[in-house]
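Question: Now follow the chain.
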Amino acid sequence: MLIKTDHEIIDALEHNLHHAALSTPRRRPWIPEEREEIIRLTKKCLGIRDEWIPRIEAEIAGAIDHGEVSIQMLRATSWDGCFCAAHLYVPQVTRNESAGRLPLVLLCCGHAQGGKQAEGYRRMAWSLACQGFAVLVPDNIGQGERAAMGHRDAVAPFRCGLSVQGLIVMETMAWLQWALQNKMFDNNRIAAIGNSGGGTLTLFLGALCRDELVALSSSGYPSTFEFVAAKEKKHCHCNILPGIVGNLEMWQLYGCFAPRPLFLFQGQMDHLFPEDLFDTVCRRTDNVYRHYGAGDAIRSAVFPGGHPWDDRRRDALLEFLAVCSGLEPLRETPAGPLEAPANCYATWPKEALTADELATRITGVPGRNDDDLGRIYLPELDSRQDTRFRRTGFRQLAAQLCAFVTPEMRASNRAAWR
């Protein structure tokens, strides 16, 4: 029967999404060959190639001192023409030449307003720096003071065989390599943490950088890729993970970090991610750690409250990271500055590439001016009128549902209404 209405098309795409999820192979991260296959598929879905991972070149544009902590404003480039901005919180003890190398926390931002300038991230970075950690807080592509690059609606990365999340992951991997080559930091005590979109990023870092990180925390995201893909709203395009449903599930990627210390948590009243799914991914990840004989290395918790970090969660993170890095947790964090530090750039460079331009430069795929997600994943529906559902349009929702599933399932989707 020929599918004609928008609702019938969405129903068919939703059915295929759930069918793809049920078909996901149960690859076991504790088996080396299967773990390598998980990592290979992760790179494939995100569009990551080792030769495309850039090199960070950074300089200190300025610094301000607040008692025990100095905050450096870093200007950097990753790919040619791709300008970066990051804050580096440094305990003042490093000014003593006899001090040893510092443990470093890579703080991965989510979608909070202002990126690295958001109060929640500043409070977390301040607490960690007072503890004795250096804390690197980069703005992701298109976020914070890099907003001019485009982020939420960037489309060219998908047409070029990349993804917005893949670009962010590759650049963050480059920041990690920058840190490993910086004599200020102890290479054996580098950790990564993140909430929400930062939780997405740390999920992938745990699988792809398991040998470089001593500890990992991911919060405000642990659930299932199927659940994320099925949300009937307009996704920020960094949430769209091409081909991942039917190939992988989150517990497999978290399991790749085993047997190193892992802390998963969320808020009990988090309206974005249900507690039931959090419990499921924790149980499955815990089982991976048990196969390593490392059940004590994984922690999970559900805290009162909603989606963002709060003081209780920051304290729990501080304790977790201190233990993993051999530091004595502070009983009380000194009061920190409430004002945001300066941006790294007075104005964003005019010559800076956008996310779409960056994707075409990296891949060599020619640019287009008429890109939208529907033309990439469902060109057969290009002539249809875009009707409106409650939180998004038909074309956007249909394209998202199609993007998340495997290429084989996409072919099945297209055949259904030709």
Remarks:
- The chain is about 35% helix and 15% strand.
- The chain has one domain: 1-418.
- The domain at 1-418 is CATH 3.40.50.1820 (Rossmann fold).
- The longest helix spans residues 6-22.
